[in-house]
Amino acid sequence: MKCPRCNSDHIRKNGHRGSKQNYICADCERQFVESYERKGYPPEVKEQCLKMYVNGNGFRAIERLTGVNHNTVIHWVRHTANSLSDAPEVSEIPEIAEIDELETFVGKKKQKMAVDNCKSLETRNSSLGIRRSLI
Ligand SMILES: [Zn+2]
Question: The pTM is what?
Answer without folding.
Answer: 0.38
